[in-house]
Amino acid sequence: MAPTSDTDSASDTYDVIVIGAGPVGENVADYAIRGSDRTAVLIEHELVGGECSYWACMPSKALLGPGAALAAARGLPGARERVGDEHPDRDAVFGWRDAMTHRRDDGSQVDWARGAGLDVVRGHGRISAERTVTVGDRTLHAREAVVIATGSTASIPPIPGLREAFPWTSRDATNIAEVPDRVVVLGGGVVACEAATWLADLGVREITMLVRGDRLLPKTEPFAGELIADGLRSAGVDIRFGTTIGSVDRPDAADTGYGRIHGGTATIGLVTADGEPAGELVVDEVLVAAGRAPASTDVGLDVVGLEARGPVEVDDSLTVPGHPWLYAVGDVNGRVALTHMGKYQARVAGDVIAARAEGKDLSGSRFRATSDHGAVPQVVFTRPELAAVGRTEEEARADGVDVEVVAADIAVAGSAVLREDYRGRAQLIIDRARDVIVGATFVGSGVEELVHSATVAVVGEVPLEKLWHAVPSYPTVSEIWLRLLEQRRV
Ligand SMILES: Cc1cc2nc3c(=O)[nH]c(=O)nc-3n(C[C@H](O)[C@H](O)[C@H](O)COP(=O)(O)OP(=O)(O)OC[C@H]3O[C@@H](n4cnc5c(N)ncnc54)[C@H](O)[C@@H]3O)c2cc1C
Ligand SMILES: NC(=O)c1ccc[n+]([C@@H]2O[C@H](COP(=O)([O-])OP(=O)(O)OC[C@H]3O[C@@H](n4cnc5c(N)ncnc54)[C@H](O)[C@@H]3O)[C@@H](O)[C@H]2O)c1
């Protein structure tokens, strides 16, 4: 539902002003005032709940769930015989997605904000002076803090004809309403891999992924990208490495709305990573999944002498250096573009704002977002799933860690009971000198619930000698821990 009016208090002075009411903005405001008589306002120019709730995490996971459930059932004798159609029911999947996104009605999120004691102001917020933010004809003043939590937007590379072709971005893919027959996906990152998975589920006949590098998910362990490429190929996806788009020609392009096919067919001129011609493709839709840019260009950063583009630089207390009243949290600071990490930063920033307001000492670890460095967990909801935390082998070596790698196939009793066709692999990156795990990667079905055990081990710096006594239950996929630790038994 489109936001229509400003709401709440007519007061122009708050303790805390937050620009951007995505998951991160909501949390920082809540933490900054919780249990106090401080006041805070959320400024939002679109929907309270942000990208995650309506355009990103929630709809994408809703679209992926039914296909994953069918695949799990197909892997288990007794259930397999009851699975009819290969694909999920399209309309029912769309209905489930729409239920998860509340059909873009942010009423419940606004209610939550008000219940938490936050004011909500609709409109575009811009810093207009130190501790001052303008929204429409209102000028708001902050006694304690201004927080930029404006998120990020999809990047569209400057390829001739691409922008004019009205390509789909992740917003269209997650809010898909019409299913194109042939789709080209530009990119090999997380959005590209997840979207190719649900497009295949929804019955897109030809999916071609163009990946300019030589592997998928280049920020993760190479074996993970290989297993996910195998999974996508078995779903019928054509992955072309070392290939990208050189030009797009779509004479009948039209902005028909989110998730609708944006006009007639497009002819894609393919080029190699070196720019050499590599043939043509004719498709019904183009999905650009080529990363995101911080939404920092139109929030008035230049007014306070900061660069008005790119990530807003912050220290580990999420404070902008030299501006002790100004904070940047979530995607906009370029540290980690994940909802759970943005919300973690929000808890840290909220606590910092509260402590500063109360004149408290800021030396405790809760006032620093230390997990942003080397302890970031992420789940990629492909088939198989990928779940990882901490550093890859390459990153650990680059950091000078005395690396030991242990790896094993996830083919222990627990996984065999879960699915007849279980396939997966796990790997730990060990700091030999300190006898602790600094990274872990799991690929397989059900691993999304396994990664937190590794996160606890990494953040807690639990010695491997002690981990040996953490006994995994039988029969569960967690038994992979035993197989991995056995390799280190002396
Ligand atoms: C397709 C897709 C799937 C994803 N899936 C996952 C996932 O499964 N798990 C995960 O952890 N992460 C996922 N992410 C990443 C996740 O969506 C982001 O990390 C998260 O949304 C960042 O939260 P945020 O609050 O920083 O920004 P946003 O969610 O982008 O919120 C920022 C808000 O600020 C508002 N705003 C911007 N500028 C202004 C302004 N000047 N004035 C007023 N309001 C403004 C915007 O309208 C928006 O509501 C996914 C991303 C994509 C694209
Ligand atoms: N499950 C999850 O946690 C989840 C799901 C989706 C997105 N996200 C997050 O959202 C963010 C955005 O995801 P994303 O996949 O858009 O970004 P990404 O950075 O993961 O991947 C971008 C891809 O686009 C390619 N690319 C960039 N510019 C290109 C160009 N000019 N030509 C050809 N290829 C180009 C890159 O090589 C890379 O393969 C990420 O931080 C991601 O972690 C998380």
TrEMBL record:
<dbReference type="Pfam" id="PF07992">
    <property type="entry name" value="Pyr_redox_2"/>
</dbReference>
<feature type="binding site">
    <location>
        <position position="125"/>
    </location>
    <ligand>
        <name>FAD</name>
    </ligand>
</feature>
<keyword id="KW-0520">NAD</keyword>
<feature type="binding site">
    <location>
        <position position="61"/>
    </location>
    <ligand>
        <name>FAD</name>
    </ligand>
</feature>
<feature type="domain" description="FAD/NAD(P)-binding">
    <location>
        <begin position="14"/>
        <end position="345"/>
    </location>
</feature>
<dbReference type="InterPro" id="IPR016156">
    <property type="entry name" value="FAD/NAD-linked_Rdtase_dimer_sf"/>
</dbReference>
<dbReference type="GO" id="GO:0004148">
    <property type="term" value="F:dihydrolipoyl dehydrogenase (NADH) activity"/>
</dbReference>
<dbReference type="InterPro" id="IPR023753">
    <property type="entry name" value="FAD/NAD-binding_dom"/>
</dbReference>
<dbReference type="InterPro" id="IPR004099">
    <property type="entry name" value="Pyr_nucl-diS_OxRdtase_dimer"/>
</dbReference>
<dbReference type="InterPro" id="IPR001100">
    <property type="entry name" value="Pyr_nuc-diS_OxRdtase"/>
</dbReference>
<keyword id="KW-0547">Nucleotide-binding</keyword>
<keyword id="KW-0285">Flavoprotein</keyword>
<feature type="binding site">
    <location>
        <position position="291"/>
    </location>
    <ligand>
        <name>NAD(+)</name>
    </ligand>
</feature>
<feature type="binding site">
    <location>
        <begin position="150"/>
        <end position="152"/>
    </location>
    <ligand>
        <name>FAD</name>
    </ligand>
</feature>
<dbReference type="InterPro" id="IPR050151">
    <property type="entry name" value="Class-I_Pyr_Nuc-Dis_Oxidored"/>
</dbReference>
<dbReference type="InterPro" id="IPR036188">
    <property type="entry name" value="FAD/NAD-bd_sf"/>
</dbReference>
<feature type="disulfide bond" description="Redox-active">
    <location>
        <begin position="52"/>
        <end position="57"/>
    </location>
</feature>
<dbReference type="GO" id="GO:0006103">
    <property type="term" value="P:2-oxoglutarate metabolic process"/>
</dbReference>
<feature type="binding site">
    <location>
        <position position="331"/>
    </location>
    <ligand>
        <name>FAD</name>
    </ligand>
</feature>
<feature type="binding site">
    <location>
        <begin position="187"/>
        <end position="194"/>
    </location>
    <ligand>
        <name>NAD(+)</name>
    </ligand>
</feature>
<dbReference type="Pfam" id="PF02852">
    <property type="entry name" value="Pyr_redox_dim"/>
</dbReference>
<feature type="domain" description="Pyridine nucleotide-disulphide oxidoreductase dimerisation">
    <location>
        <begin position="376"/>
        <end position="481"/>
    </location>
</feature>
<comment type="similarity">
    <text>Belongs to the class-I pyridine nucleotide-disulfide oxidoreductase family.</text>
</comment>
<keyword id="KW-0274">FAD</keyword>
<protein>
    <submittedName>
        <fullName>Putative oxidoreductase</fullName>
    </submittedName>
</protein>
<dbReference type="GO" id="GO:0050660">
    <property type="term" value="F:flavin adenine dinucleotide binding"/>
</dbReference>
